Amino acid sequence: MKKILTLVYILIIFNAEKSFSQDMKFGKFSQAEKDITAVDFEPDADAVVLEEYSVNNFNGGVLHNHYHKRVKILKESGTRHGNVVVRYFFGKSGVQNINKVSAQIVNFDGDQEQIIKLTKNDFYTVDGGNGWQEIRFTLPEVKVGSIYEFEYNMQDKGISFLDSWVFQNRIPTLKSTYSIKIPSYLNYRLLAQGDKTLRTEAKQYDGMYKWELTDLYSIKDEPYMSNHLDYLERLDFQLAGYVSANTSIVGGRSFKDSYSNWQELTDFLFETNDFSSYLKPSKVLMTSFRSNGEENTKELEKAKEIYSYVQQNIKYNDRIGYYPSQDLKSTLEKKQGSRADINLTLLAQLRSNGLNAYPVMLSSKGNGRSRLVDSPFLDQFNQLIVLTVLDGREYYLDATNEAYTFGHLPLIFHVDQGYLLKEKDAGLISLAFHHRSGINQIGNIKLNENGKMQSQIHVRFSEYDAISKSELKNELGEADFGKEIFDISGESLEILISEKDEPKKIMDVNISGKEIELNQQMLMISPFTYVRWHENPLKADTRTFPIDLLYTFNDLYSTIIEIPEGYELDDFPEPVEVVIPGNIATFTYKVEPLGNTVKVSSGINFKYSFIPAAYYPELKYFMGLVSSKLKEPVILKKTQQIASAKD
Amino acid sequence: MKKVFPVLIVLSLFIFVRESFSQNEDQYYSTIEKNDQIIINDDFSVEYILHEKLTVLKPEGWGQAVRRIYTNPTNRLISFEAIVTHPVSGKTIKKFKLKNLTERTYLDDVNIFTDSKIKTFEPSGIAAPFVIEFKIVKKSEYNFFIEDWYPSLHFKQKVKHANLKINYPTEIGLRYKMEHLIAEEKIEDIPSGKSITWSFEDLPILDPDEEEVAKIVLVPDQFKLGENQARMDSWENLGRFIYQLNEGKDQLPEDFKIQVHRMVEGIDDEFEKMAVLYKYVQENYRYVAISLGIGGWEPRNAEEVIKTKYGECKALTTLMKAMLQEVGIASQYTLVYAGSDYTKLNEEFPQNTFNHAFLRVPIQDEVYWLETTSRTLPPGFSGNFTKDRQVLVVNADGGLLEKTPDFSDFKFNSYHGEYHVDLNNMGDGIITGTARFDGFLALPFIESQYYKGEKELKINLIEGVNANNLFLKSIETSSINRKNVPQVIVNFEGFFQKYVQQTGKRIILSGNFLQVDVKKFENEVFRAQESIIVKLESDFEIESGAGKQVFAKDYFTYTMEVEDEIDQISIKNTLEVKFPKGSSKELKARTLNELNQLSKQSIILKKL
């Protein structure tokens, strides 16, 4: 069912030296470029990238890049694309540097071309902080039909991981080209991603490799989509090896591979100062660890205590990353750190208490790499968590957020694979997240002491549903939270909330519903006070990217209505049983009259949380059906009326 | 507004003392002691000499030792020193100087570039508990804007002691306003003019639920900005200054003047002329903000905007004003604090508290407001960005305050729908319809028409009527503005999943197609009118809901008229909602609940 992206692993070694000439020349336009007024495959587009290219050559250990981009404005709203920002990483000492920036805009009046070139004063350099810089400029006289272009040179000393090349832009792109010439003394691994990129063979010309893609859709967000970056058409290069002088080998040179396997990479990381400070903490630092020396304490209990301790005592500074930002000593002193710092601190403390614990790197949803390449390519990752095996069961831990109880991870971490770092047998592993999330509503509607019909509802949110509700409650406060989730704003109804973390995370909400007077001939009773979707959450009629609901769940709704004296059950909704093709989800609904009670029960079960776009129409219909069905009423009618009707 | 008088009497210090209890140390992460001084010099420059002693008690308070200082070419950081000592031994742990600060450009969502920078200090390598003493000196070349003074800017911080002393030349003058603080100032004569001192002891910890933060607002009477010197002691004088700043910026090139006249040739009506010229500005000039030097206040001139085809709000407004002037329509450059975080102006306390410029255009008995940075708003309709607030209208005589419309008129908040639904036995419907959205309800469509496309327009309709089960086959929209009221007409065809609820014996319809939500009540009023024909496949009879029903409640009147027309049902409904100004969210939500109970399950059909 899941679309599988096949990723290609190519080893590229070049020898030839010859320059590569580009087709697009600054200031020279084809008739087609002048004539284009709309994009066939994206007719609503208000601007289009006519062409862009990136040409890359090495000179020693520096990558020299020449970049050129050309954009045409198709509609009035497209003039907003006249501001340009070029971002690069300068670091402390010019890791990347940009120069020879030029830009111009051309407006056409019949055969006449009005060209406005930007001068030096029109380019502003902005310091974005943390080593990032930007060159910003705005084009004058942008209007419908304008074509603007700009180019620059970049020198990049950071050649272990080359900048990704993404073929797409925020507007459609007619042609995007990436060329690279790699000298014989360097060896790069290539990661290609995206349907078109994978189907495109690189053209070779005198040692230069060139990928050219055409007619590319714009990058657009959609709701329920956490990882659209995974679907971008892109190329990444990682340094796999370089020639080193070695006189013992004939010719005096040999290839030094950077990391040929995961274990090598792991060994390298473990030897770094920051990493090793957590793996081999000093005895002095260990005195500040949480320790539980009690003999009979189970492993799981011990681990939970340590986890809780780290969560509460070290503050997360919102910095992500797979590598620690500081050593253990600094983390313990400052009592704050990045995700990697905090989780490695957790690891250190678990280990010091005799529990096993291993770092796991992963690429969270939205990072662009939730499907990993089985090659020691470190740039794939952006997060670090901990794996521990306790009493025979695996747990994945992230101690940065107190809302997440032991064994629960942020939902964007629910990916298929991670990189397990171990002293032996390091490598990619499959990740499985065991939980039983869902909503369980049990209700009872009957006469109260005031002689009115009233519902008493108990709703239990479990695991990830409980976590999300708990976070919302903390954000809104208890009173507003109750109103928000029960859609009873403005009504002051009794709500009681309780939460538990053991044996699993749950939130229980008890609510007394509104009273219903019995002075009506017909009582229309909605059986369910709280449902997952009050309305269909999917509004668009088409979908480009898969839908990501983030986690699977199983909801159960059950209400018993006690028919008051003087009334009888007259009518109720018909049963339903629906399955989305591929067994993605099921919905059941039934009504069971039982003497003077009526039981209404329903279930929603999503077996898959990640649904391909091809199933979108069925999913939208399914959600519409569910949200409507759960609102259908049970109808009670006064018996006197029925008796008189019989007469 | 408080004026300072030359007095000889030294007022006794009145120290604000809370009930004598010691606050639980668990409630805060740090304590602070401040002794700050502000000196306004004869040349209108302002020096800030800040001396603070921060005691960070817990690791969570580490962030409170971070300092961010905003600078630009006329506001400089002169010196910076931070000495960290041990809280018990007093031993110096580390010293930091100016060179330890990192610097980056100040970036916001408005300016493509600005010469403002942020210098940041972080006490790296220091762990709590620690004491850090700051000595910071800043200087502004001009006193046009004097920084507000805060005893504390952090929650979980205890102010043990905070002192502010401000010296200023008498001729320049100073006004001040305390917000959420109580203390009597001590005023003294000094050789250079006057000195005012405030002292605060043991202030309550800031409450995160409180939106207002304690501060002293400082405003000069006389000020300088660039080469300009003026007074700010009245709105009139402030307006006069703005007028002077803008003088000469509105000159139009001769050929452009001819073009302007040509655009309105044959049009007599002034509103129409304004509409044509406004549309021209919207279509031809885009909003780009570049803020350099005192350029935050001084607009680029109209000629530059014409040449480059872009400008910031001040420049676009100046251009628009000049174009209207050219065709004989007078208008006024107006300053406003735009956006949703607007706080009410204190009329008695003139100060520069504006972040945006737009245009006031009086035509006959009406006043219209032109938002020149918008490419989609109709002429004379300025929308949410600047609604319902006091603004400073600027003209040659000076400035005066005026209020912008609150749009609490039905014409800006109404909707009309006509629908035909062919229902099948599953309760699904094939639907054709025409919906008209007036005022604010039309804006999402207008934006999507301009910036996006059909996919977004469909979503706008689904959201506009809250019909999430509507699958649209086709949609056609047209904008027909009625003078300054945006209006959009939407024609569509589609499939409505589960248009009705069903039980074994019955079909239950809602009395309205559009499902009202609280957002519709944003401007306190809302009007809706619908006509719906529902055709059913199978035979039925109306069990309840037939005839005319009128529900007149506290804040709304809802009428519904249902007729059985053999194989179809005709439903006509009207709704008028009107809340008192400033009604709470809770009241609106309760009213919505009441309305939904009446309308949602209002028509019951029995299957025959």
UniProtKB/TrEMBL annotation, chain A:
Q: Which residues form the DUF3857 domain?
A: 66-218
Could you say which residues form the signal peptide? none
Q: Which residues form the Transglutaminase-like domain?
A: 296-361
* Gene3D superfamilies assigned: 2.60.120.1130, 2.60.40.3140, 3.10.620.30
- Record-linked InterPro entries: DUF3857, Papain-like_cys_pep_sf, Transglutaminase-like
Q: Where are the transmembrane segments?
A: none
Protein name in UniProt: Transglutaminase superfamily protein
| Source organism | Mongoliibacter ruber
TrEMBL record, chain B:
Pfam families listed in its UniProt record:
DUF3857, Transglut_core
Occurrences of domain DUF3857 (ranges): 43-204
Domain named Transglutaminase-like: residues: 261-366
Protein name as annotated: Transglutaminase superfamily protein
The record lists the organism as Mongoliibacter ruber
List the taxonomic lineage: Bacteria, Pseudomonadati, Bacteroidota, Cytophagia, Cytophagales
